[in-house]
Amino acid sequence: MTKSARKLQKLTTLAGLRVQMATLSQVAPTRAARILARLFASPQRKTQRASKRFISPAFDVRWRVSAEGAAFPVYVGRVNRNAPTICLVHGHSGTADQMAGFVGPLTDAGFHVLSLDMPGHGAAEDSRAAIPEFLRALQQVEAEFGPFAGTIAHSLGTVAVAAAAYRGSPLGRLALIAPPNYAGVFLTQLGRALWATDQVLGRAQVMIEARHGETFEDLHVAAMAPFMTAPVLIFQDREDTRVALDSAERIAEAWPGAELCVTEGLGHVRILRDNAVISSIVGFVTDTQHPLATAAE
User: Fold this and answer.
1) Phi and psi, residue 168, nearest 5°
2) Which of 184, 200, 250, 288 is the most exposed place for a label (fewest CB within 10 A)?
3) Considering the domain boundaries, does residue 237 fall inside one?
């Protein structure tokens, strides 16, 4: 299928969803809310395959089963096995592959690298995958392979990382790239794009919170931030169309000692491949003054 054909297909699908949502919002709002809740927790992935940059001889693939019963792969580096571990966490509708740019520099710095495809993403089994699933999978992986000397996360993955650190998981020094402050914004954006009414949005939020066992407020990063002790470096691009700059600014203002770096022209995903960003983050999370790094020397 050509790029133009794929774009047309997406537009046709969007138009159909809008008509369906607008109609159901008036005649069957509960049904409309169920559809919206399902879409919110469903990752958009093109294919179900292993993250190819993490299945080379440099990594072992360890399959684990999430608390919700979905199998997902953990990519465990074979290099520097006895060194402090840095964990890489992708965002919603992403894969471990998106974080691959950090592997070489981290390995060269003498650190052990681990990543995973979150439930419902990459090679993982199909499942709904909202932030609570990300959070529980990360906690599960840290309990087995941690503690971590550092954790590098992108987009909605940063919310899971912040929540895990807030709840006591030893994730080390944190680098948060394009971090959303409040996930409820994304539900509102999705609902508005699909022409859902406020009533449907409210019902969908209740359904999502009941299904996943967490409220949106439970995962409000700026509300958790004042109680954080982990050092954090935040990167946000001004031209990111998915996460606004003020989201990162609110987190940085609330998090004691946070460092915020603002980039230009890298957007939401390309920032993960920028050499200057990668270099800055690797230097931060591998700080040799960190207790785990010092102990490994």
Assistant:
1) 105, 0
2) 288
3) yes
Please choose, from the candidates 144, 83, 140, 133, the residue with its C-alpha nearest in 3D space to the C-alpha of residue 108.
Answer: 83
Tokens for 246?
């003020």
Residues 102 and 209 placed together within one structural domain of the fold: no
Q: Find all residues with CB under 8 Å of 222, minimum gap 6, and list them.
A: 181, 182, 250, 251, 253, 254
Question: Other C-beta atoms within 10 Å of 279: how many?
Answer: 11
Taking CA atoms, 214 is separated from 123, 193, 205, 211, 257, in Å, by 26, 24, 11, 8, 28
Domain residue limits at 191: 1-40+183-213
Domain count, the chain: 2
- Would you say the pTM of this structure is higher than 0.85? yes
